[in-house]
Write a structure and sequence with these properties.
Helix content: 40-55%
Largest sheet: 5 strands, parallel
Strand content: 5-15%
Number of strands: 5
Radius of gyration: 16 Å
Mean pLDDT: 94
Order of helices and strands: EHEHHHHEHEHHEH
Low-confidence stretches: none
Strand order of the largest sheet: 2-3-1-4-5
Distance between the termini: 18 Å
Shape: globular
């Protein structure tokens, strides 16, 4: 089996930055699986549909094209909410399952998302669950939005993130949770370099890669 590294966790915990860096250092392909759900949600919104409607969301997932992942509007509160809504639809997750597995099994990969270690690749050689306190994740997302020129209230960002956490954790289809054999990495007090040092040490120990 090719080397597969699963990195899960809630929004703005730092898992995407970490996953990309690990993939670069180890020479593995990288996939942000959250973009798949964001792109599906955006397709539904573009059509004037409701992302929580199972039939509509599943149809959008089955029509997803690779170029949909290159859109520039897949981040932000509206995209976050739509992605969370479509991700709760079992048919959407089924439609995207083959894409994720095919991507990783060909050459190995580092994947980040919310159910990589529990559903997509429970057999992954290394699993991390990256998290942080809500206040810290809110601040990070607010700074990210400010840097993009979006004038948003930090209280609204926190409210959106809290509701998304609750929805992701409570959904019937692949709820957000750490795999039993995942390494829990709390980044609340760690910068990107410190987070990487801890994570890469764990990954190398589990995979034997250097």
């Amino acid at each position: 089996m090719k080397t597969i590294i699963a990195i899960d966790g809630p929004a703005a915990a730092g898992k995407g930055t970490l996953a990309r860096r690990i993939a670069g250092v180890l020479g593995l392909p990288y996939l942000d699986t959250g973009l798949l759900y964001r792109a599906v949600g955006r397709r539904v919104l573009d059509a004037g549909g409701d992302p929580a409607n199972a039939e509509t969301a599943e149809a959008a997932a089955r029509a997803l094209r690779p170029q949909d992942l290159d859109r520039g509007d897949l981040r932000g509160p509206q995209a976050d909410a739509a992605a969370s809504a479509v991700a709760a639809v079992a048919g959407v997750r089924d439609a995207l399952l083959a894409f994720q597995r095919d991507f990783a099994t060909r050459n190995g990969a580092v994947l980040d998302g919310r159910d990589i270690g529990t559903v997509i690749f429970p057999e992954a050689q290394a699993k991390l669950f990256v998290t942080a306190r809500l206040a810290e994740r809110t601040h990070r997302r607010w700074l990210e939005l400010q840097a993009k020129g979006e004038d948003v209230d930090i209280a609204a960002v926190e409210d959106d993130m809290r509701r998304r956490d609750e929805k992701d954790s409570a959904r019937d289809a692949a709820p957000l949770r750490a795999a039993e054999d995942a390494f829990i990495l709390d980044t609340s007090t760690l910068d990107a370099d410190a987070t990487f040092r801890v994570a890469i040490g764990f990954v190398r120990a589990r995979t034997g890669l250097s």
